[in-house]
Amino acid sequence: MPINILNLPDDILIQIMQSLDVKTILLLRRICRKLLNFVDEVKPEIRLKSISISIHPDKISVIYRPDQGMYAIEYLNRTYQRVVTRGKGLIFINYDYSNDGKILNNENYVETFLRDFEMILKLQKTVLKNFELKWMSHEEEEKEKCQNLIEKLKKILEPYQKVLACDVMKLNVC
């Protein structure tokens, strides 16, 4: 009989959770409500050194850097797809066309990014070395969108000032 992760004892699941990377934790939360609640309850610790966020008119790119490697996620405003890159080269997992991902139907890419980012901050227990936020648009019509997103980010970031007490913080509008 195959082993189902949902049937494992809690102590085994907790050990598994503590060894997961950022990408896997985010994916695991999307599988079912029981796993989402378990991840939220256990709060597996992640130790990121750096977070870099680039906000473009139709996508948000995030690079998470733990001790080794990197995890990059792009939240795209087209056909509800997500691209994930990892490691030394680039491995693209397209959630519309890949067996490795999950289609994000009827979800707003900004809200999905904000939810994921807030979860990452909840799990981050160590102080970041670097935090970078870049707004990549010169378009006048993007200013309202930018202001709205900045207000939402501000609400998310306020409770995590200790984590964000980093060596280098960059805020850029390009």
UniProtKB/TrEMBL annotation:
Lineage: Eukaryota, Metazoa, Ecdysozoa, Nematoda, Chromadorea
Name this polypeptide is given: F-box domain-containing protein
GO terms for biological process, alphabetical: innate immune response
Residues covered by the F-box domain: 2-51
Name of a matching Pfam family: F-box
